[in-house]
Amino acid sequence: xxxxxxxxxxxxxxxxxxxxxxxxxxxxxxxxxxxxxxxxxxxxxxxxxxxxxxxxxxxxxxxxxxxxxxxxxxxxxxxxxxxxxxxxxxxxxxxxxxxxxxxxxxxxxxxxxxxxxxxxxxxxxxxxxxxxxxxxxxxxxxxxx
Length: 145
Hints:
It contains 7 helices and no strands. The chain has 145 residues and is mainly α. The longest helix is centred in the last third of the chain and has 22 residues, at 123-144. The chain is globular, with a radius of gyration of 15 Å. The relative contact order is 0.10.
């Protein structure tokens, strides 16, 4: 998915990612919250919600932000949005897994798998694919007994 590097929300999220890289999560979260408060369209809201999800203390809060990011992503009228769907469904699945909701987790891991072909070849996509396949395997074991 292409992002406009001159977009103020995208710039804030880039600043937040920089702070993450410097091990300053509280400062990063504040920047992502500022981005969320500024977000005016579905792309901006998806982007800010996606990053805010990573900085929640409780799994339920993370799940809420991940689901919100997904809802905005699904409203974006751009075919390239399919590239972010595997990651979003993976994040949602992992939250459900962490909450002990294994059947819902498995459903979301399968939704992530359904979109893996949209990922361009990269180390990032390899990581997402491994996470999806490992989640399906774990949930398969957890739900079969």
